[in-house]
Write a structure and sequence with these properties.
There is one protein chain. The chain is an alpha+beta fold. Helix content is 52%, strand content 18%. The chain has 3 helices and 2 strands, in the order αααββ. The protein has helices at 4-16, 21-28, 33-45, and strands spanning 49-54, 57-62. The protein has a two-stranded antiparallel ribbon. Strand 1 and strand 2 form a beta hairpin. The longest helix is centred in the N-terminal third of the chain and has 13 residues, at 4-16.
């Protein structure tokens, strides 16, 4: 079961196509990027998001059905 914040994150990623911690930080008005990064990584570990690296920035997208 996902929290309402996690539901908002998944909806933001769905609408945006991809999202990084900095974008999510602005969207959810977090003070720091660590909270946003932690939430995105938790959703990735649950298998709900895919992760792609672009230099030092990590982008997350909704997991594609196989």
């Amino acid at each position: 079961m996902l929290s309402s914040t996690d539901e908002k994150i998944l909806e933001f990623v769905r609408q945006s196509g991809t999202a990084c911690a900095q974008e999510l930080q602005k969207q959810l008005n977090y003070r720091g990027r660590n909270a946003a990064s932690s939430r995105l990584n938790a959703l990735w570990k649950q298998g709900l998001l895919d992760k792609k690296y672009a230099g030092k920035v990590v982008y997350f997208a909704l997991k594609q059905a196989s």
